[in-house]
Amino acid sequence: MASIKLQDITKNFADKHVVKGVSIDVPDGEFLVLLGPSGCGKSTLLRMLAGLESISGGEIHINERRVDELPPTERDIAFVFQSYALYPHMTVRRNIAFPLIMRQHRWWFHIPLLGGMAKRRIERSPAVSQLVERTARTLALTDWLDKFPRTLSGGQRQRVALGRAMVREPQVFLMDEPLSNLDAKLRTTMRAEISKLHQRVGGTFVYVTHDQVEAMTMGTRIALLKDGVVQQFGSPREIYEAPANLYVARFIGTPPMNLLQATVNADGSALALGAEATMPLPAHLRGLAAPGAAVVLGLRPNALTVARGGQGLAGRIALVEHVGAESLVAVALTDARTLHDEEGAANADLMVTVPGYTDLANGDPVAVGFDATQAVLFDAATGRNLAAAPRTH
Amino acid sequence: MHAAMSRQALRMLAVLVLLGAAAFPIYWMLVTSLTPTEALFADRPQLLPSLGQLPVYASVFAIKPVASWLFNSACVAIGTTVLSIALAVFPAYALSRFRFGGKGAIGFGLFATQMLPEAMLVVPLYAIFAQMQLLNTLSGLILANTAFTVPVITWILKGAIDGVPIEVEEAARVDGCSRIGIVLGVVVPLIAPTLAAAAVISFFHGWNEYVFAQTLITEERLHTASVGLAGFIGELSTPLDAVMAVGVMYTLPAVIFYLIVQRHVVSGMTAGSVKG
């Protein structure tokens, strides 16, 4: 049973601060996903947890035991690398058995021939060989046990890497973008395999990815990082429904949350979205911002509806994309203004998801309606979610 | 189709010419060793060996201690190879993986040793070896040769270790390997082709070396083949057929050694060209 506690972890490379005071508590058995764009410090954080990288400040506890001074092998962890990092000169069987052989390692194993014989003996011992074969069966690798990694496909190599991690029965599995070298279809399959592995073997998983779909589908907890700082730590649902700030709102969701510039009216009962467009403030957002305050209204694409005519924000269809089960409709608003995006492009289109196919066409005048109960309100100046609930660390 | 075939033919021709250039001296050595001395100076050179001359190969063993020369050469070459590689692997790993003060200077220092010709070092080395009582010992000769091969091999191995993905080493660290275990159990097998190339370099250095073998060894029973062969050249006469016969026997082990390791050397040269 292993809980993980990161306390105020920092990491500096020369004068570059890569991780700036990260504190996360992961209870036992959780699947934590460290999510963020490249260069946000998520891989560094994982490597510090593994002991492959030293920490510049803070403390790491695994299972109530301080481990940040311990070498990787004493932390009771397994690490799955993005590049699989299999031993190319060993068969699949030896690759999987390697951690078990290392447990019984003696100094004289370094002597050529003698060491080779000793290692083979351990590999063939009933305890080790049964465990290796059971693991191989679980991962459908039985037919490949005596092959070398170079003859395997990417998915098989990744399964060997998983097998090597599994046989150690570690308290914590650490995975650094293990699926990013696989093609899209295989990635989906392996994603499910890893989730099943988590359910089957238990233990605590920490998984690094820049892919929000992986994060949302696999994680029981997500820590979203940017520039070495945790933007939000919470369940996938919390992060999706109540993003802590504008950065999280923009990062999560495909397409991401729509953000509209708004001003709270004089009596605090409604939002002015444009010259004429207004929206009555739903109960859960009332009193969050002072009258007259500049705010940002956040609405997920699936909380919006689009129709020819009727009530709502006026606009014109800019683009329709049919994905199959749903259609993505981009609407250029004529009155209200969206917030410029990260890159600074002003007045982006409002994105609406519509179930199934739609007969809307480019240039059609439409009205966008919304489910106000799903709306989120951000402070325009700080970008923080005005509702108190979301936890940030 | 036609163009492809003629290109192929041209390539074959080029290979044959190169092969001839490489093989002819060896063939000529063989022919000379099997030609009667008087026929050697005939106006028309003999192009085919006379098999009747074969006993010369047996007779050289009677005139000179050829067997012991070859044995000594083998000891020196194998000793140099084993010692050089054993001494070069760890510094090569350190130069490739560790960050420490003076790393650049050490790397340059290794290179700088290659700028000094052997002949310049003979006298100081002789003085040192005399003091350490290493004169007239094969182990002393092995040490002297190793001193010259280790820097080169260290650089070659460093290059190969640079190419070993760091993740594989990190995986081994997580799996419980010590640093030495990583070098011997993971890195060394992965750079095996380069090790083979390094073995060729040090073996040939030890096998061919003449200057040190001549100066540091004076006792005849410890002479290596390179020195012994040179001793054939007399003031008054040089038995060319015998010299060439010993020459053939001197060349043969080196060729065999190369044939054994060349498969690995070639795979080392192409390693990394294909994403594996």
Walk me through what this model shows.
Chain A is built from 9 helices and 20 strands. The radius of gyration of chain A is 26 Å and the shape is elongated. In chain A, 24% of the residues lie in helices and 30% in strands. Chain A is of the alpha+beta class. In chain A, helix 2 (92-103) packs across helix 4 (126-138) and helix 2 (92-103) runs parallel beside helix 5. Chain B is globular. Residues 271-276 of chain B have low confidence and may be disordered. Chain A binds chain B through residues 50-52, 71-73, 77-79, 81-83, 85-89, 98-99, 102-103, 105, 109-110, 150, 164, 168, and chain B through 165, 167-168, 170-177, 180-181, 184-186, 189-190, 192, 276.
In brief, what are we looking at here?
The complex is a heterodimer of chains A (393) and B (276). The mean pLDDT of chain A is 89. Helix content of chain A is 24%, strand content 30%.
- The rough form of chain A would be described as elongated
Radius of gyration of chain B: 23 Å
The main β sheet of chain A shows up as: 6 strands, mixed
- Number of E-state strands of chain B: 0
Radius of gyration of chain A: 26 Å
| Count of beta strands of chain A | 20
Helix content of chain B: over 70%
Number of continuous helical runs of chain A? 9
* Strand adjacency order, main sheet of chain A: 6-7-8-3-9-10
Count interface residues per chain for the largest interface: A-B, 27 and 20 residues
Global morphology of chain B = globular
Helix content of chain A: 10-25%
Give the oligomer, counting copies of the same chain as homo and different chains as hetero: heterodimer
Task: List unreliable stretches of 5+ residues of chain B.
Answer: 271-276
Strand content of chain B: under 5%
Overall average residue pLDDT of chain A: 89
Tag the structure with descriptive keywords.
heterodimer; A: 393 residues; alpha+beta; six-stranded mixed β-sheet; five-stranded antiparallel β-sheet; 20 strands; 24% helix; B: 276 residues; mainly alpha; 13 helices; 0% strand; disordered C terminus
